[in-house]
Amino acid sequence: MRTLYDRLKEYGRSDYYGFHMPGHKRNLTMLGEAFPYGIDITEIDGFDDLHHAEGILKSAQERAARVYHGEETHFLINGSSVGILSAIAGVTRRGDTILVARNCHKSVYHAIEMNGLNPVYLTPGFHTSVQMNTEISPQAVRKALTENPKIRAVVIVSPTYDGVVSDVEAIAEAVHEKGIPIIVDEAHGAHFGFHPYFPENANKKGADIVIHSLHKTLPSLTQTALLHMNGNFVNRGKVRRYLHMLQSSSPSYVLMASIDFCVDLLENRREELFEPYVENLRRLRKELSGLRKLKLVSTDRYDFSKVVISAKDGGLTGRQLYQILLKEYHLQMEMAAGEYALAMTSVGDTSEGFTRLGRALKEIDGDRIRKGMKEADRQVAEEAGSLRKKKNIPCLPRPDVVYNSSEIQEAGPVRSLPWRDSAGLVSVEYAYLYPPGIPLIVPGERITQEAADVLQWYQEMGFSVEGLKRSSYIDVLT
Fold this sequence. Notes:
Strand order of the largest sheet: 1-9-8-7-6-2-3
Radius of gyration: 23 Å
Shape: globular
Mean pLDDT: 88
Number of strands: 18
Helix content: 25-40%
Largest sheet: 7 strands, mixed
């Protein structure tokens, strides 16, 4: 099967002249060849229309469904976020109640706000020894569904940003007993199901809607993703309608070609891609199992593509470890959390890259950096650890929902207060770290002392808390 990319290259070399968008007209003499202008087109004859796919794009999406074991699959060129927004809007009506894992991406909360939904939150488990949120339990889902019979849909994230995987099959079974759909944000698990080292993807675990970010863990361009629909609990036509509303009416053929090319790799070259990758991961994990002060972290159900290193026992914060790796070793980590740093890996990584990471972590573990730490940095690490221990600060505060987030702006007058003075009041702003983009506070929630402590703790460790108009302050109802 010829790929979309092959067709685009052919067209770019042809003598067709484009009296159509885009305006650069593939003029390589004027623009140079550093960017893919030669294959950037619009919906012209022979190249189909994503919003009314009948030709090459229809075939490409059907192939993606086949490769991912989904019943119906759609290309997303606005990232996984547009899939999440469309999925939630498509399975609910305004005013509905929805059960949501509290560690979901901010796009889930945006969907709740945009659609005037009433959230019931599922709090994930918490791994105290490494200060990391863990999975959502099927028992917690069953309990919430029993206590809240008005729930019309369930949303969970698995794997999480940190690689924690929930028992999607058991959760889906519990949800389906109530005759409602489950949406799984599997954005970080687009590589699932292509090698036994990783879990199967949620399409094979009973999920009704699954979202995959190809660009996160597979060779595909940024903001490319897939939305899959399965079973009979979803109004597929309504989800499609929201996809048409929320996706660009001028979808990028460069991005769609990237999706199709990635799916082609998965269909035809998966063993060539995954075998050396998994071997590199296994070698790295075996090598790091001997660390003395740093600690390689995982949970019972886990995505081993994520390399999470706890720095707590080494006397460092996660941010300090992140900065050491960046400045001393030129290794850019994906994220720093309170007490750990996260390296995201993929089939695109090289053996050399894995070797460099392993060598750096062993040197840091051997005190090469620790002995040379500035006294101020050491004090930050010690104070951060002391504050967390003293106040037992979690990674994710337990929410106290007071208002529907879509109605909060109409709830009354607003004032801005320092975080330390905000406990007991209702927030009208989001507060989150990015990455991973999981809100610590959502509009409509009462700010608990626990939440205020979390914000203060992250700030004292040097993290930037986003979503707020003013640093160190939060808008609240008076």
